[in-house]
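We were asked to recover a plausible sequence for a given structure. The inputs and outputs are reproduced exactly as logged, with field labels preserved.

PROBLEM: sequence recovery
POSITIONS: 211
GIVEN STRUCTURE:
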């Protein structure tokens, strides 16, 4: 008996060993025209074995690329697409560019900084003032997520002024939402859990009383 570990490693495991054996069989064919026809038929089989590839862009070319990979790029045929190079197939995707912002007060996050910059670019008026006040409440909520204890509203005002370079401030009559309001929104399932717990206890007590 020959174990899989003793056999030739699979180039693309999704297609299995039978496809790889068929590719090796095609490579042994001396006639190029026959090799091309056999390869075309095998690509159709590969498409049936890997239907998800059809959801990708240029999936037909991807299938032919897979064929060449399985053949270790040693397959002389007339294909509808040019044979890819090893460098093209093994090329790693470009690294994603992560945000390089490093805010002084990390509890507010980069999104809050973006909102502040957007507010600074707005024209003065009621719309801008309402947006600034929304940002202030957002900052308080973010602060409470970071620190469960209460936060002084003046701290939020000072941070807003500092992060905006002194350009943004709330109205004189404006008041931030109370801390208890954010506590409810931060724990939406807390009250539901208590209700279920109480109902569960009542149900059990009534059940045993009847007995």
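RECOVERED SEQUENCE:
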């Amino acid at each position: 008996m020959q174990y899989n570990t003793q056999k030739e490693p699979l180039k693309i495991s999704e297609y299995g060993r039978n496809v790889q054996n068929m590719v090796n069989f095609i490579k042994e064919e001396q006639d190029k025209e026959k090799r091309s026809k056999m390869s075309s038929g095998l690509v159709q089989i590969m498409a049936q074995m890997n239907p998800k590839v059809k959801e990708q862009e240029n999936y037909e070319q991807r299938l032919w690329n897979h064929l060449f990979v399985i053949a270790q790029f040693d397959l002389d045929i007339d294909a509808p697409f040019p044979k890819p190079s090893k460098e093209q197939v093994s090329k790693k995707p470009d690294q994603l560019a992560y945000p390089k912002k490093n805010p002084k007060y990390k509890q507010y996050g980069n999104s809050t900084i973006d909102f502040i910059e957007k507010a600074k670019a707005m024209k003065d008026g009621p719309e801008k003032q309402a947006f600034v006040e929304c940002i202030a409440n957002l900052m308080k909520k973010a602060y409470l997520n970071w620190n469960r204890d209460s936060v002084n509203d003046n701290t939020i005002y000072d941070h807003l002024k500092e992060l905006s370079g002194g350009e943004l401030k709330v109205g004189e009559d404006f008041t931030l939402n109370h801390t208890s309001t954010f506590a409810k929104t931060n724990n939406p399932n807390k009250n539901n859990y208590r209700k279920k717990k109480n109902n569960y206890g009542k149900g059990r007590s009534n059940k045993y009383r009847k007995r």
